[in-house]
Amino acid sequence: MNPHEQFPIATGPVTVCQLQPELDLALDMYRQHNPKRVLEIGTASGGSLYHWLQNSTPGTRIVTVDLPIPDYESSEHLYPDWTPEGVTVTQIRGNSHHADTIDACRLFGPYDLVFIDGAHPYPDARQDYDNYAPMCVPGGLVMLHDIALRRDYGDGVTAGVWQLWRELQAEGLWTRELRADPRLTEYGIGIVRPGCV
């Protein structure tokens, strides 16, 4: 069987761009770590955000960052229904690479968990990691999505989160891969614990 057809896509009230087995493992770690300050780079329709919210405990603040989304694609009107009592969602609309967006995120940090799922070409992924991973507390969790993705976007642009992931592993940091199958050339979540080797 083709491994790309073997694993189900995660479900939720909106599109969730995650494989269910990988997301389940990530949510296990989320619940175990019980982060109170969470930063998500790349919210899109909010599929991952929904799951972070559903697994958050009172006192948690989740900061979401993404470019402006057209009204017909936005799920913002659903956020209040997704948000448990005592949990707060703060939206920042802007380019994750711009200084004003970075400064806005810094105001709510430091973070216990940073989830990076922005643009996937290597320079973009590297910049998001360099800008936002330092906002994570020592021993916190930085999660990178699509560490297995191999894709040609055309015009010489390719997915490069996998390259960033290999660089981080080579630095000797504590890392863990959440992969439904090592043969997959898409999806995958990589976890780094800043300050831990």
Mean pLDDT: 93
Secondary-structure class? alpha/beta
CATH fold node name: Rossmann fold
- The number of helical segments is 6
CATH superfamily: Vaccinia Virus protein VP39
The CATH architecture term is 3-Layer(aba) Sandwich
The percent of residues in helical segments reads: 25-40%
Offer a few descriptive terms.
197 residues, 6 helices, globular, Rossmann fold, alpha/beta, single chain, seven-stranded mixed beta sheet
Write the layout of secondary structure elements.
Blueprint: H1 20-33, E1 37-41, H2 47-54, E2 61-66, H3 79-82, E3 88-93, H4 99-108, E4 111-116, H5 122-132, E5 136-145, E6 152-154, E7 157-158, H6 161-170, E8 174-178, E9 189-193
Could you characterize what this model shows?
- The chain is globular.
- The chain has 197 residues and is of the alpha/beta class.
- A hairpin with a 2-residue loop joins strand 6 and strand 7 (157-158).
- The N and C termini lie far apart (37 Å).
- It has one domain (3-193): Rossmann fold (3-Layer(aba) Sandwich), CATH 3.40.50.
- It has helices at residues 20-33, 47-54, 79-82, 99-108, 122-132, 161-170; strands at 37-41, 61-66, 88-93, 111-116, 136-145, 152-154, 157-158, 174-178, 189-193.
- Helix content is 29%, strand content 24%.
- The strands form 2 sheets. The chain has a 7-stranded mixed sheet, with helices on both faces. Strands 6-7 form a two-stranded antiparallel sheet.
Compact overview of the structure:
The chain is of the alpha/beta class.
